Task: structure prediction
Amino acid sequence: MIRIAAGVLAASMLAMGCGGSTSRVTVDSVPPPPPADSTPAAPEEPMQEEAVPEAVAEPETTEPEAGAGEAQDAELPDLAATPGLLNYSAAVRIGARVGDVRAEPGEIVVEVGDSLEMGEDFDVVAYDRDGSPLRGVRILSTIDSRFAVLDEGHIKGLAEGDTELRMAIRVPPASGTGAPEIRNFSAPLRVVGPPVVSLEIEDPGVRFFTGTVLQMEARALSEGGRVRESVEIVWTSNRRRLATIDEHGFVRGIRPGGVVITAMAEGVEATFEFEVEEDPVVAVEVTGAERARTGDVVRFAALALDAEGAAVEPVAVDYTVSSFQERTDMGASIYPDGAFVAERPGLYRIAATANGSTGLAFIDVSERGVEHEVSVVGRGTAGPYPTSDLWAFTGVDGRDYVYTGTHVLTGGGGMPALPPEVAAAAAGAQRVIVERRGGPGGGPSGQAMHVWDVTDPANPILTDQVEVDARVVNDVKVNSRGTVAAITREGASDRKNGIVMLDLTDPAHPVVVDEYTETLTGGVHNVFFSGDILYAIHNGTFDVHILDVSDPGDVEEVGRWGIESPGKYLHDIWVLDGMAYVSYWNDGIYILDAGNGGWGGTPTEPVEVSHFAYAEGNTHFAFPYTNADGHSYLFVGDEIFDCEECISRNGYPGDGSRGFVHIFDLEDPENLREIARYEVPEAGAHNLWIEDDVMYVAYYQAGLRVVDVSGELRGDLYKQGREMAWFTTGTANAQVPNAPMAWGPQPFKGHVFVSDMHSGLWVVKVEPKQKAPVS
Amino acid sequence: MRKAGLVVLALLALIPGEAALAQVVLAQAAPGQRVAASAAPVQAPTYRVYVANESSDLVSRVAFTPGEGVVVEKEIPVGIMPGDNDGAHGISVSPDGEYWYVTIAHGTPRGYLWKFHAGPDTLVARTRLGLFPATMGLTPDGQFLMAVNFNLHGDMVPSDVSVVYTPSMIEVARVKTCLMPHGSRVRADGTRQYSACMHSERLVEIDVESFEISAQFDLSPGREGPFADGAEEGAADGMDHAAMADRVCSPTWVEPAAGVRADRFVYVACNRNGEVLEVDTEDWSVSRRFATGQAPYNLEATADGARLVATLKGEQAVAVFDLDAGTELGRIPTSRPVTHGVVASPDSRYAFVSNESVGSVRGTLDVIDLQMLEVVESIELQHQSGGIDFWSVTPPDPR
Result:
């Protein structure tokens, strides 16, 4: 007679979750199983009665002791009296006896690049409620993580991080009838980097005095010199009476004398020797600007003096700022290097402290006063479908053009009809070029790139449209000579998407010279020209496909670059001076040498220079720029939908748009440092462009934003009054009325061209605000 | 709409609301003869289906009432990013009609499975799957959903089938199969799931108990039979669509038989060489072949097991087969090109067919009367209408 433990049948199932998250099952009526290393309290029931099918994998288990099933039998329901249970297979029935499923070892540790084999290097084992291993339980295992994958019984480590191995078993339902249910378990899985082979303690470059407090930093390096992240470093001082160091690396000088600080990680040590001196500092003098505007980064310097008035150098200095205004925020920040920036006008006090001595300085901050105004010069609307990206250029005929893409994502029907004269011109010029199948009645169909003559910016003229078999023409790019264009395709009816190459001999009427789909069937979201190379972002492989377009009629893939990361998503690429900036969504921003040569890369065989992933993820777009003061920055935009705070677009919580512009110091491309941001709180960033120290951001619901990015940048530019102007691209006369959804901006010959998904193409002028005359 | 010898008098009185009612009187009559209607009121059934519009990120709920027409009752947004196409591809309704599931095929970064309450059409949960998840099959109890990760656009490496436990929406297993798995279906007894691999020329059977491959069948023309372990991938291996040989099956769908053939036979759409194979899963042989026309894509066996409907993606048509006689009953043009999905009503009377169309031209849904073998209703949906599944009959079909 087979009996099932009634208490186990009461296992409660998981609450519904989303996004592949895993939770543990609570088994209310069953005491928690003993730890893995405990002695089994009671042997299991003999297995022969369960008739385990051959296909059932049998993990290594402890064999049951003879006669051990007696005690449990008394607690098991009578299957004969519960005929429904007889319908379950042995593998399901035995699931009812499971108290826990654990991995062995309890925490699985795998190194990046290494693989562990189930049954050899680790195992998953089911235990009954008394802690005895159970044979014949089919355990399903999965991993949903970017740190590791489970592939045919092998766990492969991909990136450093903590995740879990999910395990599930099938059990009879608590009711005893109906479909088997699932119980879930999990085991911690840690992916560690390759072993640390060396440690480097950074020399802080200051003298240590009694009273000095500063933080030491160390880098752990693995083979090949790659920096290891998430390494625990243990700090010790050999003479704690003279200087202490805590777990965060903060050193505090106590008494004069020689001290050796040791950092240790994974058994590797590094030391740093210094001498603690008697504190000679009696005063600190602070110098710096007395006036500034909000957003100006000004620097303060502190000079420590001894009793004779002589400078004590170098010395560790702590800077702080305080405000005299009564308000809820400080309104200004000062950084460890003495850089100060204010968000709000007012008088601020700067304090510099060295070894207990403090000097003061004051700075009066005024409004930045960069307000500009935006006036609409012209607008182009065409057809019922949303507008996507744009590209403005001067054609080989000397006239100015803007090409715009379109897509069908939000449906059509709301956009006003073309003006009669434009419609007539467009109809006359319209040609269906990459048409594979006709629409109803054999007529034209497909999505289009629109051709606008903007020589007179006040009067954009639709001269032509190039229709292709696609639902989305997301991106349009023109080469630097203005002779060739590439447009991207997604949603082709035959699922062969790729790109379409256009000859611009007559830029008002581009001619298709080729389509390239062979390795890009999954659709191309963005492209970028660099000479005769076209970099294409492929939705299928999520790699950068490198195309030789020297002959636009015979495009050939000549290279490919991508990262190895499960769930990777590639969105965009921008190339400048032989450096490529690749936006890899949650994997962050990657900088490549794509012909710059400084790191050995070529246009067809790029070499990674560095990468940076930040907490917000959704890295969408990057734009490198060096401003008039010589500061080199990388402006990186997020694109965040599906977040808790997002404004609902479709009626779901979390739908809407968020994300902002991260600003990185690009002086050293190998060491990106995020130093500033521009964040409109209630909206989401999309594409941006910078020219003449002015950043233009298409900020989706927030329309076009115009931002002063001159000088040095620190902090949040939005709060610093650096925003010069904004312009809502929403209008009643739009596909979606009064709902701005700005897609992309481009300054061009004194005007700014902006595409908006709902309202089409805008031409605006940004000029200093006119002050009302004073009589 | 009327069967020969029957006069259908719809007498009226439509009651507004979800269950539109009509008094219908059926009587035997000679053609053209007026019949005095007896007054017994009969409810006209309303059939409802869900259709995924892949390039609009919208799911359409469509209601069809014979004699009254077809309407789009609701459009449910399923995408996240308005600027990108999330790609709602496959759709399946749970056997009890409580939920529907849609695969978001492109996804960011990968594909997702979304679960909705059917009726209110409110989101219940989401879970991440593999690359380009496409069609799904559900076990008869609705507990397990098995979605093929089509991965048609990535590197040509073997892809897999995701197994999702639907009450918790957790993926509990991923079964590696072959190149471009497509057309996931679970047979009537719930013990086996089938899919076909477009670029591996293979039919794959998974044991729903163990979630392991239990059998594979080589679909390469001329060598159909049990797939030998260690054999090379099919002739279509590789991503060069143009270079694919003429004599390949390129299977896109597996449809388990219903009725008397249930749990033994499955039907495979050979998209490339224009035929449907009937495969006997007991002795693993091809028992019959049906020539179809251009590019058979999706299949649907009617619940009574009598008919098989094949969408002909390359022909803007569907083909209807009599499975007892082994003959094609008719080929019915559809309203728009790129004919995609098909589902039959539980009473085996109607087939609902989605047509993707091309580019910015919207897709459509056609309702085909499987007795009259003609399109009786069509309605325009959103862009690239593809995945389709049946939800309900109101009032319930007494059969």
About this structure: Chain A has five domains: 6-192, 196-277, 283-366, 380-526, 562-769. Residues 1-81, 411-445, 651-655 of chain A have pLDDT under 50 and may be disordered.
